[in-house]
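Q: Could you write out the predicted structure for this multi-component system? I'm mainly interested in how the pieces pack against one another.
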Amino acid sequence: MGPYIEISDTYAGYALSYFCVPKHYEEDLENILIPSGIIQDRIERLARDIFQDVKDEPLTTVCVLKGGYRFCTDLVDKITTLNRYHGSVSVPVNVDFIRLKSYENDSSTGDIQVIGGDNLKGLKGQNVLVVEDIIDTGRTMEKLLAILKENEPKTIRVASLLVKRRPGSTGYRPDYCGFEIPNKFVVGYALDYNEYFRDLNHICVINENGKKKYAVA
Ligand code: IMP
């Protein structure tokens, strides 16, 4: 895994009052762990690292829906900006999608299913970049990589915006990682809790009130 920003277990984040948070979530969040501006700055650097590693070869990004959609959009946007400004190097980018389901409330069900997306046969011979929001136990990514490898891509790399530090991890580490975070349930920037909070720009820690309010019975 390349360099990443490590957020310590004792880091208290920012109070909600310092930044703009939708009124409908004000009672449901503990703190702002990563403000949206820092997310963007970090993705800019990940885009540069990926651009330099891939160089002139075409890249097929596989966006893991739904949680990875914002990260994938911003990452691809930044790679294409580099394409525009670099006269001598360019990385043609394709975007594919895959939809998985593994979570209910705040814990992994352990039952990971592919429930939609592009035809994976098209990945044969491609340089694939899997774009994921968060690695928690690592089980989802290990299962997904096994499925993708059956389709014989030329190379597979993984970019995950977040990696959670938690007991019970499989030990899986992505090639590119934005931030390593404490073992807390985070929402925002397309990360959800039972489909809520995707419409929040910052990455925040959910509180007990939010977990209760949006729990699936
Ligand atoms: P894993 O299989 O335990 O690594 O789980 C990975 C998936 O769980 C991610 O793609 C997310 O969809 C979901 N997930 C894990 N932790 C969080 C979290 O803190 N917030 C939101 N979703 C999470």
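A: Regarding packing and overall arrangement: Residues 5-213 form a domain with the Rossmann fold fold (CATH 3.40.50.2020).
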